[in-house]
Amino acid sequence: MSPLSPAPANATRVASPLEAARRYPPKPADVYLFGTCVIDVFFPGAGMDAIRLLEREGIRVHFPQAQSCCGQPAYTSGYTDEAREVARAQLALFAGDWPVVIPSGSCAGMFRHHYFELFKDETQTLKQVESLSARTFELAEFLLEVCKVRFEHTGAPVKLALHTSCSARREMNTHVHGRALLAQLAGVERVDHDHESECCGFGGSFSVRMPDISGAMVQDKTAALKGSGAAEVVSADCGCLLNINGCFEKQGDALRGEHLASFLLRRTASASTGGAR
Amino acid sequence: MSTLADTPAQPIAFTRNAREALADAQLRRNFRGAMDSLMDKRRNQFPDGDELERLRAFGNRVRARALSKLPDLLERLEANLARNGVQVHWAETVEEANAIVHGIAERHAAKKVIKGKSMVSEEMEMNHYLGARGVDCLESDMGEFIVQLREEKPSHIIMPAIHLNAGQVARLFHDKLDVEYTEDVDRLIQVGRETLRRNFFEADIGVSGVNFAIAETGTLLLVENEGNGRMSTTVPPVHIAVTGIEKVVEHLRDVIPLLSLLTRSATGQPITTYVNMISGPRKADELDGPQEVHLVLLDNGRSQAFADGELRQTLNCIRCGACMNHCPVYTRIGGHAYGTVYPGPIGKIVTPHMLGLETTRDLPTASSMCGACGEVCPVKIPIPSLLRRLREEAVRAPAAEPQHMRGQGAKHSKKEALVWKAWRTLNTSPGLYRVAMYAGTRLRRLMPADIGPWTRYRSAPKPAARSLHELAREHLGAQ
């Protein structure tokens, strides 16, 4: 079963919304990085910044070149068989003992929680799924809870807003970890924005299948981010950033969100390893 | 708006309805304001997150246990209600349910029915059915009364007229009830009550819904805030309660957590103003109450959900509406756009069982899967998982053998299925993936500026010059 919560008595499939209290391993010497397909094509810089942040903590990063997508697009669209085969390919690539760090909460949630559903009828595969799930960490969570980083802000004081993707929030608690990392930085004032926990309207294929509803949602989200008075916007999910930045650009606004990893690499030094990058 | 009595084979025009709703600034302001207020009220009722989680788990267990022995509980409910003098009727379809109610009305030569709030009666389109047969139905819940005057459907399962503001109600009452125009809400309620008051005494039959049907005691429990539920169930000589078969719980004590979850989640109230527990008609030594009490138990597709271990969780629902109040889609388009009796997240997972996936095939898709609904559901229905399952059923290749879900495969498209097969091949063939990424990044300038629905509200996404695979290989070496 998924580590989220025990299944209700009448359920055969489960994906409950809240991450239960998680136990964390000691900081490892090696990790896998799963880069995600959206980062691969649209935000490779964020992926590289995640790699460099991990290296800054003295960790060796392994990036299996055969990796592709976690399977989520097909899974949420109802194409379960297709999602399963893509998931199976990833399972085989991350079969070692190293933790798998993912700079995206929704893809991390897919590895950690939804592969159980995909492979529920395959007893042998479920063992691999259990191992992968236990070793999967969202980047901010990994830095905070496993590496126990202490970051120092090196730039000018800044007001910023943090947007957390819905699955990152509800499946991985990423908003908690992201806020905690930013709270370490003396020069960073994180400001709340209106309806902060509300979806930005991305939702993968939702943004294309229901364009008008999705459009109304992202317009509200960009207005809320602007209204917060933040000079910068960060998020740990590039799907949302694709959506939010695209809307800012369409509106002729200069504001762009960047990945939390990029912000952290650019604007902090690591006190946990005793040196800047 | 489509009617359920003559269900159209065409899919509900959800996207068109949604577009119209989004363009209605007044509607959007009304919903955003109302939903924000309801979310605040609920939040204030659950200051302790741990207590909330324990209570939700408790509520979930109570509902799951009741459903695990549903057939047995329904039989016990029937036996104990019969012992209390309540006549129990079973209806597989809304047509059967309406015929039962009409039969009772005919037997009493009833001309007038007063109704407390009941979503199952909306499911049945009872007002329409009885009205066409010379029996007038009048809604006595203030919100229902308002939507009935406007000849509309409820836009929310708890607050039927939540799409309207005071000014709109003021104009309605002025036009339809011939009263002086006033936006004073207290005065408006007074006007409504005066109109309704005499109807309670003139009605031949009172109709109500049921919140919980308690098997061990044969009791029908009904919560409300206006007193109209108590009036409808006690003043007319005949009371007919209508409810879905899933509303049964085993013990009276089971109601305690569910009631607490229901009122706090729905309206942010620790308890409703009225909690009615109906255990039979007027007894010989009693001075008031109806002479006859009937219960109509309606299936209407619930058995289909019940038959599947996962989909059965749909029936946990206690109809609080919290999923609607927290839904970013519902908040923006309101209830009418769904074109169904039950709107919002719960509507998207329950209606396909009632109407089939042919007409409702777009509803499971109308979600960004943000999970807000599942997070607030007081009985822990995994709504996003069930939406995903229904998407799977809708796009499944149509099968030759009898199907478990009505309308399974209704959204199947050979073209889309092929696209996903190609997607699978691309993402399971590293060589092919590498070529595609190389092409996608090198040809990025060919990305058109207009890519249909996406670019209506956003600029087109721009592939990077080089993929992460390439950059990582350069930085880390081939792995």
Automatic annotation (TrEMBL), chain A:
Cysteine-rich domain sequence ranges: 32-112, 161-244
Organism of derivation: Thauera phenylacetica B4P
Transmembrane segments annotated in the record for this chain: none
GO MF annotations, alphabetized: oxidoreductase activity
Name the record gives this protein: Cysteine-rich domain-containing protein
Pfam family name, one: CCG
PANTHER family the record matches: LACTATE UTILIZATION PROTEIN A (PTHR30296:SF0), UNCHARACTERIZED PROTEIN YKGE (PTHR30296)
Domain of life: Bacteria
One GO location term (cellular component): cytosol
UniProtKB/TrEMBL annotation, chain B:
Keyword Iron set for record: yes
GO annotation terms (biological process): lactate metabolic process
Record flagged with keyword Cytoplasm: no
InterPro entries, A to Z: 4Fe4S_Fe-S-bd (IPR017896), 4Fe4S_Fe_S_CS (IPR017900), FTHF_cligase-like_sf (IPR024185), Helical_ferredxn (IPR009051), LUD_dom (IPR003741), LutB/LldF (IPR004452), LutB_C (IPR024569), NagB/RpiA_transferase-like (IPR037171)
Any single Pfam family the record assigns to this protein: LUD_dom
Domain of life the protein comes from: Bacteria
Sorted UniProt keywords: 4Fe-4S, Electron transport, Iron, Iron-sulfur, Metal-binding, Repeat, Transport
Coiled coil: none
A GO term, aspect molecular function: metal ion binding
The 4Fe-4S ferredoxin-type domain, residue ranges: 307-336
NCBIfam families: LutB/LldF family L-lactate oxidation iron-sulfur protein
Protein name: Iron-sulfur cluster binding protein
